[in-house]
Amino acid sequence: MSGEPEVARTPEEEETEEEEIKSSYKPPPEKTIEEILAADQEDESLRKYKEALLGQAQAGTVIVEPDDPRKVIVKKLALCVTDRDDLELDLTGDLTDLKKQVFVIKEGVQYRIRIDFIVQREIVHGLKYVQKTYRIGVPVDKMTHMVGSYPPKTEIQSYTTPPEDAPSGMMARGSYTVNSLFTDDDKNIHLQWEWSFEIKKDWKD
User: Fold this and answer.
1) Of 8, 22, 174, 183, whose CB neighbour count within 10 A is largest?
2) 3-state DSSP: the chain helix, strand, coil percent, rounded to 5?
3) Pairing state of beta strands 102-106 and 191-200?
4) Where is this region: Disordered (predicted)?
């Protein structure tokens, strides 16, 4: 140890350092399914791994919705609480209508968020779910979840966040706005939407 006192960093400096770390990360180049299948054919164990990973995509291009050119189609957000029906947002229609649908959440409950989506045409790499929560326009929480890489499939695929605790106490009660973003390592924005919830002392029913 040098004996010199550690200089405290400002939040701005920490944020700058975090951005530099992020910017130094270079995601691997995207490869088509054909390129992945063609590589390392002599490696039997790797070939079997690819077959398990790619699943239906080996038989040809998986296209679930031909009129939609996107590789990722986000279908639904669900707020999941044990022993209660899921609260769901349909993400396939007019996203501006979501602001009219306000979830009521009992203070202090543990919940998870599930995203249902379709992957078609090509593998998507490094999917991420980013959620920023605001109260009266002031940011109060941000979470980023690594969803992972997914092959095309005809079925709905899902990602569920780890459990979170809703705020509790009289000061926590009230309305919140959430900005959600489904993106990936290459900064493709697959869907961005805004929704709302209200923390109450008890469930509305």
Assistant:
1) 183
2) 20, 40, 40
3) parallel
4) 1-32
